[in-house]
Amino acid sequence: MSSEPPVDPGDVRAAQVEHVRIEEEMEQSYIDYAMSVIAGRALPDVRDGLKPVHRRILYAMHEMGLTSNTSHRKSSSIVGETMGDYHPHGDSAIYDTLVGMAQEFSMRYPLVDGQGNFGSMDGDPAAAMRYTEARMAPIAEELLEDIERDTVDFASNYDDRLQEPEVLPSAYPNLLVNGSTGIAVGMSTKVPPHNLGEVIDATIELIDDPDATVGDLMQHVKGPDFPTGANIVGRNAVRKAYETGRGRVRVRAEFEVEEFDGDRRRIVVTEVPYQQNKARLVERIAEDVNEGVLEGISDLRDESDRDGVRVVIELKRGANVEVVKNQLVEHHLERTFGVINLALVDGQPRVLTLKETLAEYIDHRKEVVTRRTEHELGEAEDRAHILEGRLKALDNVEDVVETIRNSEDRDEAKAALRETFDFSEAQAQHIVRMQLGSLTSLEAAEIEEEYEDVIARIERLEEILASESELLGVIKSELREIREEYDDERRTGFVEDTGTVTHEDLIPEEESVVVVSEDDYIKRMPAAEFRAQNRGGKGIIGADLKEGDRVSSVFLASTHDYLLCFTTHGQVYQLKTYQVPEMGRTARGKSAVNVLDLDDGEEITAVVNCDDIGGAGARDGDDADGDADAATGVDGDEAPDQYLTMVTRDGYVKRTAGEEFRNILSTGIRAIKLEDGDELADVEVTDGSRDLVIGTRGGMAIRFDESEVRAMGRSARGVRGIDLEAGDSVAGLAAIDPAQHDWVLTVTRNGYGKRTDLDEYRVQSRNGKGLIDIKTNERNGPSIAVEAVTYGDHLFAMSERGQIVRTRVEDVSTIGRNTMGVTVMALDEADSVATVDVLPAARVEDSADDDE
């Protein structure tokens, strides 16, 4: 008997326990789970473009015999077969996939032919699977073509009862044609759909020229082709996506402007971006209209039906169509499709370029066609072998019949035939099963003909296997047949990429009055709010200033203008008119600190439109050097000479080339060097051929040729323009072109003014005393502005307390120089004119004056 103690079962179990660090186990388990999701659920295979669930549904339908020429079957039956045999997951997930493959707005070339309610673009769900029916679409059969010919590998299903394909033969590049979307663990894929014909042409191009670049392939593949149509904005993002496998493609709805009810307009949307819920789109537009985010829309309705999308957006009378269109594009009608061309290559996830995707597919088809050819060759050789035996038997028919008759049974007959006539086992088996009717001479001729055909077939198959060019020729031929059968027109077009919609695009272009106060309050108002009045009117309120504040400057500009604002300190700043907050006439305005970085005591004294000087001043979208030529359409090398001509309070004048103002910093740049106590008084745009008129507060004026002032740099002080009397200072500058102007308009602080013919201001040399322009007595007060004007111009005058009057210049009397003038603006006691500006006749219509 053994003296060893009995073994404790607990010790046995303890010995079987493996000690593992928990972090290592969690890491490995997570990696296993992640790879299971990546390879077995979420990502498509580059070869057939399908995820496992799509592949299993199609194979289950194939096994059920649900081809395109059979009757439809209940979707629940298809889901049950798929779930029971190949995909042991929830039936809802399988049905959702089946529904997606049947939706024409989800898949460019639907793989399932559905019957019943399969959902809509409005997000409506499909009917329950017991109500809908389905079968394979014809193009889906092309994915499964030749699957029985040993073209792909099979693997055991989840319970080892059945075999399922690891990949489908795929007669066309389905990954690119129908695209794919999926989220795995730590990665995702989003391959856009494409036009079948374009993809096939690119595939053939790559077969013919393996060195073809992405650019070469893009001669065929223009870009994604979405089932819902719409338009791709620009081509650069598409090229980047094809070259790198990643990109962001902007897709914009298709819409047009229609006229109705006389002079009214409506925007009709006929195609929406891919994967955009149409009903939600309409709801969001309605929400923005109700909240005041979208203006100018009077009605919104969805008139879509089975024939297509039709969303009607009716505009209010007088609404700016371009602004509403830009607002809709900015917020609703444009989406970004983020391309991530990620697929499984040899079981591993890879981001692929367009060329790599097609190359992987070509390799797959080469393997499929090779394996199919080998399979067909084996079948043909087997058939040829049988036919050789039959022909040999016919040549020896009497002896063969005699041998069979003398045998006891089939086995003995087969053995005798093999021994006597040297037949193979397969040949002998076939001969003993032959019917006597096949021994006729007619049957013999048919066998001979079939044998010749089979031999020719064998030679062709061997030729294909022996030559890669022949193999590729077969692939190209089959691709062309697919294209001939299923190709259609592109649905998605292209529109020019003019850049993303900017804030400027959302602002109506209209003439505005910009008001700045001494305490740095600023605002803008539509000029149309100020009707032209007869001269001498009081005007209407233009700003409700706080106590102690007064208007320092007022100027006119279009909301889309880029302006150079010159200050009394000799600095120049850039300003976009639409950046100034728009407010009502009775509003005070908002702090200018976020618009202009002015120093204490610094005031705007002149404003110049950048377009008037060839686009000087940096704009959004300029290059790093501040070159705005592209933005303005003016070539700096070819533009005519243009200058900014400046005058100071002390009478200095200088000209500086406009190109020196192309780079404006946010903190401004120096425009002129000023002596102590001097200030910049006015700035005009000139071209070297103008006459300059400098007017003083004391009522004097001097006219001289612009050429007397040489061009200088921004840091220069300038030269003497007028010899001022003691106590006098410059009020303003007018640049006269006799071909454009008829009068000099002078306005005084107490609201008086006059027009005077140009001829009354004789041309003399600069730095003279000048001539009397207007009497500046106690009634008139000092002169504050001189302007060159013509017929149709409008004068805007604003008082220090915020009153604004708009007057046609023709309403101001034409009188001589040495006169007192007439009332231009009626002022309250202790109020005075702060500043004036002139709206040129060419822009008066844009200001929508009611009296015009």
* Average pLDDT for all residues: 88
**How many helices in DSSP terms?**
20
Q: Which percent range describes the beta-strand content? A: 15-25%
Weakly predicted, low-confidence segments: 618-640
Distance between the ends: 129 Å
The chain-level structural class is: alpha+beta
Outline the biggest β-sheet: 5 strands, mixed
* Computed CA radius of gyration, to the nearest angstrom: 43 Å
CATH T-level topology of the largest domain: Neuraminidase
Q: Helix fraction?
A: 25-40%
Going by CATH, the homologous superfamily of the largest domain would be DNA gyrase/topoisomerase IV, subunit A, C-terminal
Structure description:
This protein is of the alpha+beta class and 852 residues long. The protein has four domains: 50-169, Alpha-Beta Complex (Topoisomerase II, domain 5), CATH 3.90.199; 252-340, Gyrase A, domain 2; 357-486, Topoisomerase, domain 3 (Orthogonal Bundle); 507-847, Neuraminidase (6 Propeller). Helix 3 (52-64) packs across helix 4 (75-85), helix 14 packs antiparallel against helix 15 and helix 17 crosses helix 18. It starts with 8 loop residues before the first helix and ends in an 8-residue tail after the last helix. The model is unreliable at 618-640 (pLDDT under 50).
